[in-house]
Design a protein that fits this description.
The complex is a heterotetramer, with 2 copies of chain A (391 residues) and 2 copies of chain B (396 residues).
Chain A (H helix, E strand, L loop, with lengths): L6 H17 L2 H9 L4 H10 L18 H13 L4 H16 L2 H13 L4 E4 L15 E5 L2 E12 L6 E7 L6 E7 L5 E5 L9 E12 L3 E2 L4 H34 L1 E2 L2 E2 L4 H30 L4 H27 L10 H13 L4 H15 L9 H8 L4
Parallel strand pairs in A: 1-4
Antiparallel strand pairs in A: 2-3, 3-7, 4-5, 5-8, 6-7, 9-10
Helix pairs in contact in A: 1-4, 4-7, 4-8, 5-6, 5-7, 7-8, 7-9, 7-10, 8-9, 9-10, 9-11
Chain B lengths: L6 H17 L14 H17 L18 H13 L8 H14 L2 H12 L5 E4 L15 E5 L2 E9 L9 E7 L10 E7 L5 E6 L8 E12 L3 E2 L5 H13 L1 H24 L1 E2 L2 E2 L4 H29 L8 H22 L18 H9 L9 H12 L5
Parallel strand pairs in B: 1-4
Antiparallel strand pairs in B: 2-3, 3-7, 4-5, 5-8, 6-7, 9-10
Helix pairs in contact in B: 1-3, 3-7, 4-5, 4-6, 7-8, 7-9, 8-9, 9-10, 9-11
Classes of the chains: A alpha+beta (391), B alpha+beta (396).
Chain lengths: 391, 396, 391, 396
């Protein structure tokens, strides 16, 4: 048992951190907001460092690494507010590796590994709430394949994606399934969203009688759940990166900025707030790393571990963003300092792939199920045993 | 204790409500809104203030001799409620009406009052506030902007920051150092500066919301006539404290409260309408708890204001207690807007301009604005220190 | 409109404050915990000052004052951890004044006013949750009166009460009603509880075929709700008193206690915590005073006002108790300093007459009803109007 | 990163579990409990420690030469888990095992180690901790208890407070001032004091829970042989900091975590059983959120411990990071017990001894205990300062 990363994993992380800090500092976001898209050179850079091949087996041109190897890198992607297209592509890669047929893997994985295929995840829908249960986009079997209809919300960077993974409902078993569609398939229409997150482009994707062949269906039972959990785990880890960055920025400012003749970090109001941020962000990292391990190594523990992480990391990152702005005071409220880019991305990550409430509800349901406890009306027999649990 | 209104007060409310119905365009606040363009919005707000003045509804609580109608505190509360209920625009000249006027009525000379007050009321002259500097934020008393007396003028040099609406302002209420040798609180004076004076340069400061309400203001050999000094020379700090207490007090807070209440009502409406399958967001007990907490906290903000007004009626002056008002509402409102985005679920990020945004994206904008609540008018850290030392008597 | 108390009301408050501080300081609680009951001289003292006659009309020997006059006095009762029998007796007085028949008033009010009749409220039941909806104690009409059966939880000081007000359910209309029973009626059995609050005695009251005549039924529709709301309002105001006292004690200690060569109150960690406590307790007072006004003058606003107060005051008082212990450090954790008496009473007041969650739920329900909004499925027509609420 | 166990580790767990099954009375933790009387409970705990030692399950991570079995950190984690899972009693000699031993292994002389360590392991000698004084709580370095060197003895005079279990202790690890002139951190020494030495008087301190775990200890011309000095004279502060870091660290926290987890499981059981009409407390979404938050936070406490162990495996020493561990769990656990009472609804106040109390009133007692979590082993304010200055590098 060892809950630590290897020296190689730390080195890999450091390489990404150095690259992102050098080639993709906050200034890039400022440009990006007005001068979009900037993603292409970044994509090439990340790809050149091997990011998109990490999860891809060597047989398909990748490095054959696992999700744990990815964890610290995802933290860096979060910290540098990298494009959500990277997160989506990595979640899709995990799905293809676990659930894809040999033919699907051969078709998509080499392109992903080499950075030529970008994937966008089309899951959320208006009126469907968090999670998958409320989704209504339909997939109807037709001769030789399926016909998809529905409207997807908040699809990140779909305009520049090559492949869409769409979660849709098959009528026969009411089963949610994942379909891989070329982004330019007939019947796919995009409408750009305006969102809080001005460092990325999100679109509404409408599928009107989109036809695909049978080979577009990825995996069977469980693929949609796996996709959602992986995407949520990635969001949780990215939130840790945001939290760490906000802590770092707040601490640096508190060391320099003087008021009343002293660095403001010498005041307990600031010092203790930074300490609370540090404790929350560090605990968030514990949760996120464990979720990464569960995704990689222990699928049956993954839903609970992911939900623990996603709920806690969202709250910790939010507190860190708010704390960083507060520590900066007025200057923290200015556009040009750029703390708002983190606040904005943080809010998107908090409210996509299940918000904290949704994940907490799932944590409790999983915990009670493990304990053999039920909600509702079947628990009468327990009352007696409880009375005996004195003290 | 009595929450009922006298017949005269009820008449005042009805008269105002009727006037507002006529003065605002049909559908105002429902289908007709303020312009999105910042400059157009600012001009609209100024126009609205002038309209209020023309209708006799400006500075209602001011003494009659300065053009007010000498309204009671209760009428003032009714006024704030009715304007907010009609979703009337905020004015542009908030600093002039709320801060400069209070300062001049209390500390100005008679000729300053005559010169400035009626033009504030009429909307003829808009004011901005030149207090903070890049190195004097929480530590406001360490300002460096220097005013050198040169005959019958001060010559002012320095830099101010967060000067709201300076781009529309005719006048600025400015804190400047006038004695470099004295302890820092004792060498500060308060000046009234004509914004057209040569040597003033503005640079807009874009906020995290994308708007440019704030500015940096640079002063380079700006000449200010000596008669524009408020109070005694080097006595500006104490006067500024009155100004800041007014900024943190119940009058400001009551107007805000009603606007927060409107947003909260819209949020409750949204929570009832936003559906997941069979159920609405409002059916979720956990969200209900947070919404109820918002209802409770915003309602208590109103009650805090009314208690404060009642203390004033008893003759208690503005003081450090106003920091309690401000600390309370800034955090209550920040929580409200965090809750708002939570209620929107997966649509939380859809902002103004998106066809699917809930309530036109107003909550996202308010969420961003709310981050400043705990910073401006004295950060929460400063308010807590004021409360600890000056209300509770804890040692420095 | 005036949201302030009169000079007379403040003077009356001061008289109670002086009396309680002199004759009933914290030391009395320390004695009380080992040497119970101490309530009798206190009762005589409070009675001598006119407390129990305040709400009683002059015709029945009282002062004919209202609930607003009582508010500041209740704050003092809370601050001094006075016996809950006082709170119960005052809530019962309000009920008798509002809902009692002339005969009932003539029977009980003079005794209450003179301090010879103490009342205990028997409302809560095991398994009934907060509020009245879950109560099952039954009142069955019999010849000339009613027969009551059921078990009541957490009845304060019933052993020394003269009169019990019992909330029970009539079978005909499933209507909850209030019955006034002499404490020594046949069929009433008491079992002492052991509770967190060692400054008062709570008992379980079992009613086994207790017979009463028709005159025992107080009021009709709404009496039980009124009783619950009044009791909750009193608890809210007492919680404000506890919060104020904890703030005062914490601030005093922070001024005296030195560590690192300075009074600990000069450290921002302590100073700012006290400031937050002050803001919360002051806001709680706003809510509690308004609830007192609504109870007195505006019954239709009372349920919402009481729920706003009870939820907020409970949270504020809890924070103040926890804060006071923390500011004191180790000494705050000692029995003899006595902060725990406040913590314990606070927890009882928080969790009786509806806890914060229960009251918040009611605030929301009342608010939505006022707005004409419904939960659940009847709101579709609103969606459209909402979209127009731009921006 | 690897959460699986080696076959050897699994064997270790099974062996321990089997031993525990035999060593604890049948029905332990379900129908059979520790005695309610404090003294009887203390003696039972000591007996249990001796039983552990007899079975070879004491000080498992200690070096073999001092009677331990040199267990790995992973085995230590398994050990903590299994003891807690069996609801085995806590030992009485926690200070001896966790703090004194770590201090002596690192800073003691070989003869001190030989003299003391094996008797700690065997439960022959119980230890208490004499650090805090009435005027030296958060400001521990300002202790006044004075040890005057007199030939080959120190003569100690002063008063200590919060000396846990002093009434059962044979020895005390004591901080005393040995130089009145030096700066306050540089004049402190660490002594090992035989509690039978003449001049020691104890006075029990009753806690808010009604228990008397703590004492005041008065020292009046207490003679301590010079060889009972740990480390160099006047170098005791740094050594004490190691002791305190151990007290705040993962080893202590992991044992607590599992006990909190047990309480949480009991709470979930209670929430499922406590009914209002048709529904149980567990059906309420708002309570579910709070219970889930407790599940999340207590689970993360475990993960924090495991990360900390893993850092130790990498060779990173105990340090200010332990304050993060302690700050985290103390507040997570306080929230847990506030939630517990909330779940109980109108029965929240029914305490141990009441027939209707839920789970025998354990939650009320734990609630009261939890108020000390943010005070002992360094208050949360002290931990935040340590984290701010020594982990984050913020200026003093």
């Amino acid at each position: 048992m060892n809950f630590d990363f290897s020296a190689e994993q730390y080195e890999f992380r450091d390489a990404f951190r150095d690259y992102l800090a050098r080639d993709y500092p906050l200034a890039a976001h400022v440009r990006q907001a007005t001068d979009y898209p900037l993603a292409t050179p970044l994509w090439a850079g990340l790809s050149g460092m091997g990011l998109f091949g990490m999860l891809v087996p060597e047989a398909h041109g990748g490095l054959g690494l696992g999700f744990i190897d990815l964890a610290l890198v995802l933290e860096e992607l979060g910290r540098s507010l990298a494009t959500p297209a990277a997160a989506d592509t990595l979640a899709a890669t995990d799905l293809l590796v676990r659930y894809g047929t040999p033919a699907q893997q051969a078709c998509w994985l080499p392109g992903i590994a080499s950075g030529t295929v970008r994937v966008a995840l089309a899951v959320a829908e208006d009126g469907a709430g968090h999670g998958l249960d409320g989704l209504v986009t339909s997939a109807r079997p037709i001769a030789g394949g399926y016909r998809l209809d529905g409207t997807k919300l908040m699809v990140a960077e779909a305009a520049t994606a090559d492949l869409l993974l769409v979660v849709a409902r098959l009528p026969s078993q009411q089963q949610l399934s994942v379909f891989a569609l070329p982004r330019d398939a007939t019947g796919i229409a995009l409408r750009p969203h305006t969102t809080l997150d001005i460092g990325a482009r999100y679109v509404e994707v409408t599928l009107s009688s989109v036809h695909c062949d049978a080979n577009a269906l990825i995996g069977e039972v469980g693929a949609a759940d796996r996709l959602y959990d992986t995407a949520a785990a990635i969001a949780a880890i990215e939130l840790v990166g945001i939290g760490q960055q906000m802590l770092r920025v707040a601490v640096e400012y508190a060391k320099q900025r003087e008021q009343f003749g002293r660095p403001i970090g010498s005041f307990q109001a600031i010092k203790h707030r930074c300490a609370d941020m540090a404790v929350a962000v560090d605990a968030a990292a514990s949760a996120a790393y464990f979720a990464a391990w569960a995704i990689a190594e222990s699928p049956h523990e993954a839903p609970r571990a992911v939900s623990i992480a996603k709920s806690f990391c969202g709250d910790a990152a939010r507190a860190a963003c708010n704390g960083a702005i507060q520590v900066h005071g007025g200057i923290g409220f200015t556009w040009d300092l750029g703390l708002h880019y983190y606040l904005r991305r943080c809010k998107v990550l908090e409210t996509t792939w299940g918000d904290a409430n949704w994940h907490r509800e799932r944590v409790l349901a999983e915990t009670l199920a493990e304990m053999g406890l039920q909600a509702a009306n079947s628990a009468t027999h327990l009352s007696e045993s409880l009375c005996k649990l004195a003290p | 204790m009595d929450f009922s209104y006298t017949p005269a007060e009820t008449r005042f409310r009805e008269e105002l409500r009727a006037w507002l119905r006529d003065a605002l365009p049909p559908g105002w606040g429902k289908t007709v809104f303020e312009p999105e363009d910042e400059d157009a919005r600012a001009m609209g707000r100024l126009e609205w203030e002038r309209k209020l003045h023309a209708g006799g509804w400006s500075g209602i609580n001011w003494p009659k001799k300065y053009g007010g109608r000498g309204a009671t505190l209760v009428e003032q509360g009714i006024y704030a409620e009715e304007l907010a209920r009609a979703r009337a625009p905020e004015g542009l000249n908030i600093i002039g009406r709320n801060l400069v006027s209070a300062t001049l009525i209390r500390h100005g000379t008679e000729s300053q009052r005559e010169r400035f007050l009626s033009k504030i009321l009429s909307g003829e002259e808009v004011w901005c506030q030149g207090f903070s500097e890049p190195n004097a934020g929480s530590d406001l008393a360490s300002i460096r902007c220097f005013a050198q007396l040169d005959g019958d003028h001060f010559v002012v040099n320095g830099q101010k920051v967060w000067t709201s609406f300076a781009q529309y302002a005719n006048w600025c209420i400015l804190l400047a150092r006038t004695n470099l040798e004295a302890p820092k609180h004792k060498g500060i004076s308060l000046l009234l500066v004509d914004m057209r004076t040569p040597g003033i340069t503005l640079r807009p400061l874009k906020q995290i919301s994308g708007e440019c309400e704030f500015n940096e203001t640079f002063l380079d050999d700006v000449r200010v006539p000596r008669e524009n000094l408020v109070g005694e020379i080097n006595e500006g700090w104490k006067i500024a404290m009155t100004t800041l207490a007014a900024e943190r007090g119940a009058e400001d807070a009551l107007g805000r409260q009603i606007r927060f209440k409107q947003e909260l009502d819209t949020l409750l409406l949204a929570a009832t309408s936003l559906r997941t399958g069979e159920s609405a967001a409002i059916d979720d007990s956990a969200l209900r708890q947070k919404l109820a907490k918002a209802v409770v906290e915003i309602e208590i903000m109103r009650l805090n204001c009314l208690r404060s007004f009642s203390r004033w009626i008893r003759g208690i002056q503005l003081g450090p207690e106003e920091s309690m008002m401000k600390l309370y509402w800034s955090h209550a409102a920040q929580d409200l807007f965090e809750t708002a985005l939570e209620v929107l679920g997966p649509k939380a990020a859809l902002a103004a301009g998106d066809a699917s945004a809930v309530a036109g994206g107003r909550f996202q904008l308010s969420f961003l604005h709310s981050k400043a609540f705990s910073i401006y008018s004295g950060s929460s850290e400063i308010q807590r220190t004021i409360i600890g030392e000056r209300v509770l008597g804890l040692p420095k």
